[in-house]
User: Fold these one by one.
Assistant:
Number 1:
Amino acid sequence: MPANLTASSHSTNYNFPALIFGILLIIIIICGNVLVCLSVYTEKALKTTTNYFIVSLAVADLLLAVLVLPLFVYAEFQDGVWSLNMTLCDGLMTMDVMLCTASIFNLCAISIDRFIAVSIPLNYNRKHVDQRQIVLLSATWILALAVASPVMFGINNVPNRDHSECKLEDNNYVLYSSVCSFFVPWVDCDWLSMFLSLISRKKKVLKVIPIILFLCAFLFCWTPFFVVHTMRALCEDCYIPSSVTSIVTWLGYVNSALNPVIYTVFNTEFRKFFRKFLPTLPNCC
């Protein structure tokens, strides 16, 4: 989701900690998610239906690190001042909304897939993607594009726009995107996580714990962001420090680095593949 890159009326103060942290975060997200994609592509044991959904999530996180985070880090390094052209800003906002929404929707798709697998296992194809799963995978990306499309079509081009900051300009759109990208999926995923947890008492726990952890990490990382930005949209006169906005935005992006860790910890085949590329991983992994 879009970061609120606040303008500064004084000379730019360069934020070196944000630059260092941002570069490290980008590297971690890229490396982790590339390894996830490679592992499913190369390892026969990992070519399962669930893992195709995980690859879709990894692709969303990977694109976020490549297309969105570099510009976000650049702006944070300049203390929130946007010094590039507004067309690039609108492109950043579009990709930010779309890819973060796609990441969230993919988490929900994984939950729905697990729900189907444990509730009607006899009708679930574990090795090959069937039509139902293709529809679910396609829907995550089509809906994410639909949520981001107003920015693509110029909703940010408002009169007297401040060119020294890059943000979503329309508060109604902020509310719309927050509801579509987070609050509705949150309700669905929360219900599914509870279902997967009554099942974990009867089934093999390791099959559902990773999905529950995905959802917990997702809620921990993204709830502060959407609460803060919804408050900003609903109460324009409310003062929210720019530092708070930056912190909750960084926290949301950290979620893209956590997902590969969850795959690796709870899947033996992923661990084996990661060890081929990362021989220094601790034995406990």
Note: Residues 6-10 have pLDDT under 50 and may be disordered.
Number 2:
Amino acid sequence: MPAFHQILETTPRGLYCPAGDFYVDPHYPVDRAVVTHAHTDHARWGCKRYLAAARSEHLLRMRMNDDAEFQFLDYGEAITIGGVRVSFHPAGHMLGSAQVRLELAGKVAVVGGDYKLGTDSTCHPWEPVPCHLFVTETTFGLPVYRWEPQQQTIDAINDWWRVERDAGKCCVLYGYAVGKSQRLIAGLDPSLGTIYTHGAVEKGNEAYRKTGVELPETTFVGSVDRKQDWSGSIVVAVPSAHHTPWMRKFGNVSTAMASGWMAVRGARRRRSVDRGFVMSDHVDWPTLLEAVELCDPEIVWATHGYSSVVARYLQEQGRNAEVIDSRSRADSESDETDSAGNEEDPE
């Protein structure tokens, strides 16, 4: 710990770099924030200055206050703040997501943010960044969480849509508005029917398209006449729309949730949806361990989820690992939903 205290330390406001006088993903508004990605539990509204990866620009500007001051860096580009060399490296979580690399006096700390390994057409893939200190999320840090190949899940979603379309139903697919929904839309087969979107999802689509991400054509639900026949189509919506009056317009529906929590028995029942598809934008158990091996740090800080389980397992494997609390209890939004369907917790 002493060797890193000038690079990174935990504080009530979040991870703080004393030498550079900035916070990484602060819990509360601060003067200078270095952010890993545009989800609002990481990019806190109200900060004076933001530093982030360039590919997150449209998403951040969409979500932040107009008078905020932004600076953006390409992946791999570095600047020096208070003697600390700061750079961003792909995290694979969503568009513009990044790991933050901090280097001072020959020591390197990497804040992984939220990340996943594997392919995703909507964002740059995660890259290992060798370091002395690695801060890793542990949202799904239990051996039970093991994701199937993405294409297998996408094929299952399209098969569900095809069957329900032929039965004359409208499919409603739930996923977080920014990140998850665009990943789902990118995999949908537009030859099956029209893809409609909730307003929050469509705003995310616009930012993705402005950044150059190709998505199938989508239509905002609010732009369509109320007498529209929705049968055979699919609507990509946020989970909070479930069981609301907004849903009535679609008539006979089949509902589904795309979430890592769908891997847990009973999660679909608690969400009261017809189908559950296991898809997460976070590392599962085996890829979390793979990431640690590839970065090969001297010290691992585990946070955001099953941190004690992960830290204990790594210790048993001979690694120096400890638990830190780097997430605010005041978080009001995150990138996914927990097994009970609460949008306040990460998925």
Note: The longest helix spans residues 150-166.
